[in-house]
Structures are given as structure tokens and as C-alpha cells.
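Entry 12.
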Amino acid sequence: MPALTPRCTPGAQVTAQANGWQLTVPPAAAGRYHLAQVDDYSSLARRAFPHHLPLRLELRAQVSAPNLPGTWGFGLWNDPFSLRLGLRGAERRLPVLPNCAWFFHASPENYLSLRSDLPPHGWLAGVFSSPLLPGLAVALPAAVGLPGMLWPPLARPLRRALRRIIREDAARLPVDPTQKHAYALEADAQHGTRFFVDGHLAFQTRLAPRGRLGLVLWMDNQFAAFAPDGQLRFGVLPSPQAACLTLRQVSLSAG
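Predicted 3D structure (C-alpha cells):
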């Protein structure tokens, strides 16, 4: 199993178990953020993230309930937004464009696709592939453009412009994540990314993430939505019950 570091907000728990981890977030009141996460990059500068393609990730996973508020999942990414969220030891970084390949669950409040022909939420396999621009080249335009993103008539053309820069592909997974399943992804810069569930090919795309990547396994009650109507919404969701994500036999290898 890769060397992973647990990080969680007060009330959440990351418990090491035999050959794996259990991530637990407590019931959440409105406006209270909860995160349980293990990763191998949070204390590193982005240029020092530990992985590059080709990569193969394998694990077994089971979640406690369907349609949990917020997001959860596991995979590879470049942590493009780098919000510290009060977590000790996290590195401060400028934002960059997203690069990731992951199994990702998003509750219906989320809208996490810039394309209208791809699923914006649900239990997904997905890839974002973006140019490797330096942080300042992203942060300055983002600071200027953020007010416009809050005004739908201007946000709609901005969303279309981002779609030309940030390439993405995704598909819903036709399996019940509350049951134990074996998940794997293979990402290669030349051949793209393949996602497997219980040994069967579930989704394949020619896209692959670029640059240095970190391994992340997480559960939280956050949402973000940038819908085709131009409405930008984000925040945290209340949850009436505790939620748990169990992960076993986590393996990450080159090639």
C-alpha cells in the first residue's frame, strides 16, 4: 500500500485498518464542513507531487449509503484549487487547471462538468486533461474573471471558453457502490485512461491527466456547481447521518 497521510476536520475520522483505511464523516449541520481524507501529496509543492504517467491504481471499496451529500472517491489529481480548509500541514499553492483521473461520486447538488453531454453528478469514472500553465498564469485571469462568473449572462460564455481549454470525459458507472467492488484505473499519456470494475472494462477514454499527480482517497459534504445556465454555486450540505467509506488493498504502480 502506498505511504498515505490521513487528514480530517474535527469530528471526522480516518482509521487505519488491516490492509486499508476507513474514512468516516459525522452528521453535518447546515454550513459545517467535514472532510476525511488520505493522500500522499498535501505537504508537497505541486512540482514535487510523487507520481507521473503511466500509472495503475487498484483497490477495493464500499460506501455506507447511496447518494450521500457532497462528494467522495479515489484517484489521481493535481489538487488544482489547493484550499487549506484549516488542515494542518497542507501546502499553500496557487490554483492551476485541473488534471485528474478518478472514480468520483457527486450528489445531485453538484454540476461538475463543463460539457452538457457528460454526466455532471452521480457515481462516475472521469478524466480532466488541461495544459500545464504556471499558477500565476491561472490565478491572475481567475481573479479578474471571478466577478463575471457570478453573473450568468457573462458566466455562460466564460464556461464555453473554459471548455476549449479544459478537456474532459466521463461516464456513469452502472454498479452499486454500497456493495464491495474491485476498482482499477490505468492512465497512459499515449493511450489514454481505462477504468475497470471487478475486472471488467467499465469506461475508456483517449484523455489522460498531465503533469505531476498525487493519490487521494476522500469523503466530504462539499458541493460545487457551474451549470449550463451560468449559475455558479458552491458550499456545504447538511447530512442527517454519518457516512463511511471503506478502502482495502490500495495499490499504485508504474505502468
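Annotation: The chain has two helices and 16 strands. The chain has one domain: 5-254.
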